[in-house]
């Protein structure tokens, strides 16, 4: 057989020797990739120039181990307020649902410790990048020196700076204090266990893989061509070329001319994937020697940063930690409101600024507030940004520099949220966010949907970055520690 005929789909398509996963375009999901109109509204007018090809992210995953705080899988009764509702635009008729839920109980105070601290622009002006040189002890705060935040100036709220007192909106009070969401008023369907949601979420990948491999084995004898087709299947599932080769080699061992059972295929798949993932499945250790331990959340739009902050705050608060939240997404009003709701739900103080304020300035204030209040942990939200928007990535670098003005070792933890429905594009997110913000660990969200997830295997094989948590729902308890065995089993379609 001619060489060209032997090669599998990608070999034939790209003609290469060692196969690489197909270069993905940025994910075409609507929520991740803004339309032109959305870009005009939500993202700064910028060059949009592609970021240069990323080098391997050298994020240092090590966090000081002085009195490490290991976050357990603490589950508490779910609170029904739904911060995701805050994502609804103000004029969205659906967004009035929460307001409708105001009850007498809404007049009850927020949970203890819950408080919103909002800064006024002219009291705490923006931080200028020029002032971040080491010799300057504190950022200068000249308005004239303040560069654009990188967002469209026309989108700034003209009323910014007028807000003095911030009280929870009636809408917020209603859903928080009443403790009743619209879901809770209906008979709730029994909630599937987290492992079931994970398996269901990854079932598309697992059936495609399992079925594909079985059909390849059933139809023909195992030979070079079959092995190449197997590799193609695994690469299409985003597992990466190296892992694909390892798996096919394992599957092929001693099986020439033999049939292979479905269970055997799934078992070998799960074992090999687990081997790759086991070294990166690491709990999030927070060094309580830092006051506060600063955790920065970064990622592409809509990947679940704010939601993950809320879930983390809940876990930490249950452990008795004093937590502060910084609404560093100063661009999107709904993001600030969403974080405020999470603050109320979890009894955490929220530091925010009016929309349009400089994110670095807000973060500078939050660092000071958290230090003054002797907080254990400061969780900083940031605006979502596509990793190929150079000007937005520069803004993120500025945020990191401002944090270091307070504590050169901070941020102590930088978490990148990856949406599990994303394919190859997640690899470049890891590389570019890793280089820009020094990502120390990953959280893969939305594994309860129609997830893909295979890319995490390729990311683990290439970067070895710790994966701390998986998001398996929008609720406060829907954040689970990442475990290699469970994840590998779910991708391989194992049922136990
Ligand atoms: N099903 C599911 N939905 C999730 C999960 N995590 C977050 N979401 C939802 O995804 C949407 C986006 O989440 P956010 O937390 O607002 O994402 P973000 O990264 O802060 O968004 P931007 O600020 O726009 O960049 C919300 O509707 C969340 O409720 C998850 O694990 N599972």
Automatic annotation (TrEMBL):
Its EC number is 3.6.5.4. Residues 45-61 have a biased composition (Low complexity). InterPro entries: AAA+_ATPase, P-loop_NTPase, Signal_recog_particl_SRP54_hlx, SR_rcpt_FtsY, SRP/SRP_N, SRP54_GTPase_dom, SRP54_N_sf. Residues 466-479 form the SRP54-type proteins GTP-binding domain. It is found in: Cell inner membrane; Cell membrane; Cytoplasm. The keyword Membrane applies. GO terms for biological process: SRP-dependent cotranslational protein targeting to membrane. Keywords: Cell membrane, Cytoplasm, GTP-binding, Hydrolase, Membrane, Nucleotide-binding, Receptor. It is a peripheral membrane protein. Residues 150-159 have a biased composition (Basic and acidic residues). Residues 1-66, 82-174 are annotated as: Disordered. One of its GO terms (cellular component) is plasma membrane. Transmembrane segments: none annotated. It catalyses: GTP + H2O = GDP + phosphate + H(+). CDD domains: FtsY (cd17874). Residues 23-40, 91-103, 118-143 have a biased composition (Acidic residues). Belongs to the GTP-binding SRP family. FtsY subfamily. This is Signal recognition particle receptor FtsY.
């Amino acid at each position: 057989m001619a060489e060209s005929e032997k090669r599998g789909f990608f070999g034939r398509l790209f003609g290469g020797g060692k196969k690489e996963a197909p270069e993905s375009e940025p994910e075409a999901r609507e929520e991740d990739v803004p339309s032109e109109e959305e870009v005009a509204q939500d993202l700064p007018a910028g060059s949009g120039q592609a970021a240069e090809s990323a080098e391997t992210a050298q994020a240092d995953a090590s966090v000081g181990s002085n009195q490490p705080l290991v976050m357990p899988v603490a589950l508490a009764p779910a609170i029904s307020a739904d911060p995701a509702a805050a994502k609804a635009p103000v004029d969205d008729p659906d967004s009035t649902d929460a307001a409708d839920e105001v009850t007498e109980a809404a007049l009850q105070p927020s949970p203890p410790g819950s408080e919103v601290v909002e800064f006024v622009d002219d009291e705490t002006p923006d931080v200028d990048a020029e002032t971040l040189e080491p010799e300057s002890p504190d950022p200068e705060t000249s308005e004239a020196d303040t560069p654009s935040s990188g967002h469209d100036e026309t989108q700034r709220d003209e009323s910014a700076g007028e807000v003095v007192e911030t009280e929870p909106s009636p809408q917020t009070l209603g859903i928080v204090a009443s403790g009743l969401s619209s879901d809770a008023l209906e008979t709730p369907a029994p909630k599937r266990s987290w492992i079931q949601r994970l398996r269901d979420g990854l079932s598309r990948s697992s059936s495609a893989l399992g079925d594909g491999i079985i059909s390849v084995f059933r139809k023909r004898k195992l030979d070079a061509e079959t092995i190449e087709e197997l590799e193609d299947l695994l690469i299409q599932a985003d597992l990466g070329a190296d892992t694909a080769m390892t798996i096919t080699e394992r599957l092929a061992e001693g099986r020439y001319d033999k049939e292979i059972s479905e269970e055997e295929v799934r078992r070998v798949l799960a074992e090999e994937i687990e081997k790759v993932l086991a070294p990166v499945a690491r709990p999030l250790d927070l060094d309580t020697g830092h006051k506060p331990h600063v955790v920065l959340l970064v990622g592409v739009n809509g990947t679940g940063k704010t939601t993950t902050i809320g879930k983390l705050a809940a876990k930490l608060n249950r452990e008795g930690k004093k937590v502060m939240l910084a609404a560093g997404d100063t661009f999107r009003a709904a993001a600030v409101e969403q974080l405020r709701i999470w603050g109320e739900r979890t009894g955490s103080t929220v530091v925010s600024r009016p929309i349009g304020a400089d994110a670095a300035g807000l973060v500078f204030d939050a660092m000071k507030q958290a230090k003054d209040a002797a907080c254990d942990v400061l969780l900083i939200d940031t605006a979502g940004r596509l990793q190929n928007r150079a000007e937005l990535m520069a803004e993120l670098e500025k945020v990191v520099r401002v944090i270091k003005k307070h504590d050169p070792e901070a941020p102590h933890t930088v978490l990148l949220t990856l949406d599990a429905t994303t394919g190859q594009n997640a690899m470049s997110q890891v590389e570019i966010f890793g280089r820009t913000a020094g990502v120390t660990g990953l959280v893969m969200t939305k594994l309860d949907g129609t997830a893909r997830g295979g890319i995490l295997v390729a990311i683990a094989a290439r970067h070895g970055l710790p994966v701390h948590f998986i998001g398996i729902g929008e609720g406060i308890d829907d954040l689970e520690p990442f475990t290699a065995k469970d994840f590998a089993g779910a991708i391989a379609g194992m049922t136990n």
